[in-house]
Write a structure and sequence with these properties.
Structural class: alpha/beta
Low-confidence stretches: 1-31
Distance between the termini: 16 Å
CATH topology of one domain: TIM Barrel
Order of helices and strands: EEEHEHEEEHHHHEHEHEH
Mean pLDDT: 86
Number of strands: 10
Shape: globular
CATH superfamily of one domain: Metal-dependent hydrolases
């Protein structure tokens, strides 16, 4: 069982961001050594009910165990609310785990998703940043509702329940609301007709810069990588993130075929980036989604070292 915890903090710098004060700290952490020979099957990208997944954190761990995984990370969108339940269940199951989060950001006008790992979950800079991200997400969800009601697509009494503290609403929640009210017949139809850029009811995300997200994860003692770059993230955007301090890139992902995986492996080797991977599992029915344990990667020693020492 791998356990990450902070036991010493030293302030080394400070800068004022657009939305918050950023205190940059260094950490010295102690953790039981990771047995590199035993961690062969890792999935460092999955989602729970704390964001837009369909399984609770402990149920997600049970699925990971059934899938034969031995290193996992819960990477909910802009929240770590599920981490403690996930870590506790993993500890009981004897499954190695590491704190994770998926952050939406904007780099050179392009939306990117960044995966933070191995940070101190209770760090105040991270907590403040994620609270702001959740507020932005909830405001966006209510604007979606306003526009859908104005267009007559949803009835006036349609509503989302109050999001639990530490969580936020996302487009899948709006899509399910549309289905519940009979406005669409499927999640795919909801997205295609109402929830993507170019539709009349689409609401853009207010996003932090890639540099802000990278600085926050570093301040909290973690490492950060680019999630599922696929075909849609321009090369210059990737280079800009590397210049901003990016540590890793997700080479293994369901949206990456063999050619794309090979391309991003070469890119990581060229720029000295760590390589991560995962299933991006949400437990969504009807989305042709693979089960946990079907999409995984074998972590290299450099990644395990980084997760252990940050």
């Amino acid at each position: 069982m791998a356990v990450w915890r902070r036991n010493e903090e030293k302030t080394v710098g400070f800068r004022r961001g657009a939305e918050y004060d950023l205190v940059v700290t260094e950490f010295q952490q102690q953790a039981p050594p990771l047995s590199m020979s035993s961690l062969k099957k890792a999935d460092l990208h999955m989602h729970s009910t704390a964001s837009d997944g369909r399984l609770a954190p402990d149920a997600l761990v049970a699925e990971a165990v059934r899938g034969g995984l031995d290193l996992v990370s819960l990477t909910d969108h802009d929240t770590i609310l599920g981490w403690h339940a996930f870590e506790q269940a993993a500890r009981v199951a004897g499954l190695a785990c590491v704190p994770g989060v998926e952050i939406s950001a904007r780099q050179a006008g392009v939306e990117v998703h960044l995966l933070g790992y191995g940070f101190e979950p209770e760090h105040p800079v991270l907590s403040g940043f994620l609270t702001l991200q959740q507020e932005r997400r909830n405001e966006r969800a209510h604007e979606f509702l306003r526009l859908l009601k104005l267009a007559g697509i949803l009835p006036q009494d349609a509503a989302l329940e109050q999001a639990p503290a530490g969580t936020s609403w996302a487009r899948p929640h709006i899509a399910r609301l549309l289905m519940d009210h009979g406005s669409v017949g499927s999640m795919d139809q909801a997205f295609e007709q109402y929830l993507v850029s170019g539709t009349e009811t689409f609401v853009p995300k207010p996003l932090p810069s890639g540099k802000e997200a990278i600085d926050v994860i570093h301040a909290a003692g973690g490492i950060i990588g680019l999630a599922h770059p696929g075909h849609h993230v321009p090369h210059q955007v990737v280079l800009g993130l590397i210049e901003a301090g990016l540590d890793a890139i997700e080479t293994v992902h369901p949206s990456h075929d063999r050619m794309l995986t090979g391309y991003y492996v070469s890119l990581a080797e060229r720029f000295g980036l760590l390589m991560t991977g995962g299933s991006d599992y949400h437990a969504r029915k009807g989305h042709r989604e693979q089960q946990l344990g079907e999409r995984w990667f074998t972590p290299k020693p450099a990644l395990l070292d980084a997760l252990r020492t940050h």
